[in-house]
Amino acid sequence: MILTQILQPTCVKVPLEGKDKNAVITELVTVLDENGLIQNRETVLDAVFTRERTRSTGIGSGIAIPHGKCSAVRELVMALGIASDPIDFDSVDKKPVSIVILLVSPADQTGPHIQALARISRLMLDEDFKKALESAQSAKAAYDLMSERESR
Question: Cis link prior to 15 (omega < 30° from 0)?
């Protein structure tokens, strides 16, 4: 799976404006909505927040991957945000996050959802890439980093 086949350049937000977990999730869902990628913003927010209440998607090392499944999307969609000031995300390592990657997929499509989560996790193991992404000064710079990394 190549993430830049899912992530559109217009779905990257740098810097994120939200200062807490809920605000950032809402901000990224709004980005998807503004790009016409979701059919019902409230349904998506409910799915992502319901998942988040189950267990934080702050996976550690400054990364969060909030995600959810619902009927408000036809296919897997993705938004990426970089926070200029790290955000408390109730992460497993108790550290704040700078990189937030939101995934939303149809309730009946588990495969692409799992593949995307795995791909993101593998990418973020590359410490140099992660640091470059955290330092991106614009949405274009962040998207270009992802695109360049994915084309290797």
Answer: yes
The H or E element that residue 18 is part of is none
pLDDT surpassing 80 at residue 152: no
Sign of the torsion angle spanned by Cα atoms 125, 134, 104, 147: negative
- Gyration radius (Cα) of the chain, Å: 14
pLDDT tens for each residue of 21-52: 999 999 999 999 999 999 999 999 999 999 99
Q: Are 47 and 94 in contact (CB under 8 A)?
A: no
The structural domains of the chain, with segments of one domain joined by +, span: 7-147
Residue 45: CA atoms inside 13 Å, Cβ hemisphere, count?
15
Going by CATH, does the domain composed of 7-147 fall within 3.40.930.10?
yes
Query: pLDDT tens for residues 130-141?
Result: 999 999 999 999
